[in-house]
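Field guide to reading this record: the first block holds the primary sequence, the second block holds the structure written as discrete tokens, and the final block holds curator observations. Each block starts with its own label. This record concerns p21-activated protein kinase-interacting protein 1, catalogued under organism Pteropus vampyrus.

BLOCK 1 — SEQUENCE
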Amino acid sequence: MELVAGCYEQVLFGFSVHPEPKADGDHEQKWTPVADFTHHAHTASLSALAVNSRFVVTGSKDETIHIYDMKKKIDHGALVHHNGTITCLEFHGNRHLISGAEDGLICVWDAKKWECLKSIKAHKGHVTFLSIHPSGKLALSVGTDKTLRTWNLVEGRSAFIKNIKQNAHIVQWSPRGEKYIVVILNKIDVYQLDTASVSGTITNESRISSVTFLSESVLAVAGDEEVVRFFDTDSLTCLCEFKAHENRVKDIFSFEIPENHVIVTASSDGFIKMWKLIQDKKVPPSLLCEVNTNARLTCLGVWLDKVTDRKESLPPAAELFPVSKEQSKSNKKDSGHVVQEEEKQSKPNTKKCGLTGVSNKPTKGSSQVLTKKRKTEMLGKKKRKKNKI
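BLOCK 2 — STRUCTURE
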């Protein structure tokens, strides 16, 4: 497993974490994070991060999305379509990536060919956050136009617009998709899907920076303080709280592996920490390990090498964002997306096991498209044959 985190200092950090075998007499398994790579691909601070079973993608204030192949440990290129800070990124299984930005656009990307399938003008202001329903058929987005919007992803159109009193900065579906939450400053409105109305409101002590569902009814909340709280979204009560860091917690992420339910926290104090959750959420989690990046962290993810993706059984790409042949041609001409060519790995100029360190920045409006290494090699072989003749 790999802990990945972005920071204000424009760097993406990677730490591989391996549980050590239990020694005789040990009650708890020891986990040790080891520095794997640091990669400086962006020219401004990192603002968003998403992970699937193959790739890590990062969004930045430099208006680009960078793709990292975690299997090969290489920079896979960059996507340029948005005009504004990338505010949110989310994978849907291994087939699609959805991005939102300050230009008000939501873009749907083919995560195999890295083509822009759809570009939707979603909000009059910035898109501040988006969340895909577990079924893959719906998405929610919030923006600075004081609206909460529901999107029909099968047809690629707006399904419902709800006006809200203030600008929301987080929206999140529950694991089963029976409810969703909308965050405005330090308040969390809990909505039920069947009624699309607020069933209750949770108030945190400080402005909320990140949330993650630990179960259908339990929500972990991090804010502009050192404390993380677990709330019950049914009873609207705080189950427990614990001091996680020495400074404000910027992002929080949860995942399950055999025998362990884990949450990871990242803070402005530079630390990434892994915590083991106890079944009774009224009891604070125990610290598994921590690592100091010495940077001001902004976003976080966990890449699992052999991830079991719960979304893999969902409709294939053709059913989810249908694009006609004519649309596909026009998208390729007009989308403005760019993916850089993979760089040769003969002399990487970062750490031994790191990603490639220097990447040629794509320019907006360029028509450069990703060229696989094998295609380049094939062309080279053809040229050599011609020369021989």
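BLOCK 3 — OBSERVATIONS
The longest helix spans residues 373-388.
Helices lie at 317-320, 325-334, 373-388.
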